[in-house]
Design goal:
The protein is of the alpha/beta class. The protein is built from 7 helices and 8 strands; from the N terminus they run αββββαβααβαααββ. The chain folds into 2 domains: 5-180, Nucleotidyltransferase, domain 5 (2-Layer Sandwich), CATH 3.30.420.10; 189-239, no CATH class.
């Protein structure tokens, strides 16, 4: 029997998704191409259960857009390397995705294709959001990279930071890795309270957690950067 929306919301993960229904432990993916310097295409595979963008592939295309065969090759590598494959594949209606070769590959792998609405902004909102974040948080903040290996390395660093250190509003303030690896989220732990007269019910940032130790705590805020990248900050707060 197919799980209902209520059953899914009551699961231990309680992961909110933009999809109508996500079945726990069911790998649902989106595929979308983004051009860089007209010949490098970043293909980002997104798990709808946790928005964990750590799986991606880079390929070059002479025409500036990936062919159906290139996408098939990249998908095969991703699936084989990670021992997973998507149940659904959501994309735009580019010729690469509607070609007979790509449709045949999807059928052979029992992958169901779903398409975003033509010309309708937001129809593949999850993918559009992560690509915008990738552009604003990475490619627009670094020098132009001239080699494929440099592009791959910078992209890996960005998504390592994105998954491990960046809280997500859609995930109720959790990071993708906290959800994906079933970690107890940092924002669900008792909070350090710097206000001397604060109590457990005193208004604070959501989610409201109990106070750890005494109120009026003095703290030390430490700012680091992932491998020295100034656009990838890591903020840690410690009680003094």
């Amino acid at each position: 029997m197919r799980p209902t929306r209520n059953n899914y919301q009551q699961s231990t993960q309680k992961v909110k998704s933009n999809f109508a229904l996500c079945v726990q432990k069911l790998f649902i993916a989106e595929l979308h191409g983004y051009k860089i310097n007209n010949n490098v295409v970043i293909k980002i595979i997104i798990s709808a259960l946790c928005y964990c963008e750590s799986l991606f592939a880079v390929c070059r295309s002479i025409a500036g857009s990936p062919t159906a065969l290139q996408i098939i090759s990249a998908m095969n590598r991703i699936c084989n390397d990670n021992a997973v494959k998507p149940k659904y594949l959501i994309s735009d209606k580019g010729t690469q995705f509607t070609s007979s070769e790509f449709r045949s590959w999807c059928n052979e792998n029992e992958i169901k294709q779903r398409f975003g609405a033509v010309g309708k902004h937001g129809s593949i909102a999850v993918t559009e959001r992560v690509i915008l974040t990738y552009k604003d948080g990475c490619t627009r903040r670094i020098l132009v990279l001239l080699s494929k290996n440099e592009m791959v390395n910078e992209t890996r660093l960005f998504f390592d930071w994105y998954n491990e250190y960046r809280p997500h509003m859609t995930l109720s303030g959790k990071t993708p890795n906290e959800v994906y690896y079933h970690r107890h989220p940092a924002n669900a732990k008792p909070r350090i309270e710097t206000r001397p007269l604060a109590k457990h019910k005193t208004p604070c940032a959501s989610p409201r957690m109990c106070i750890a130790g005494r109120t009026g705590a003095k703290i030390n805020v430490r700012l680091d950067f992932l491998e020295g990248r100034l656009h990838l900050p890591i903020i840690k707060v410690e009680r003094i």
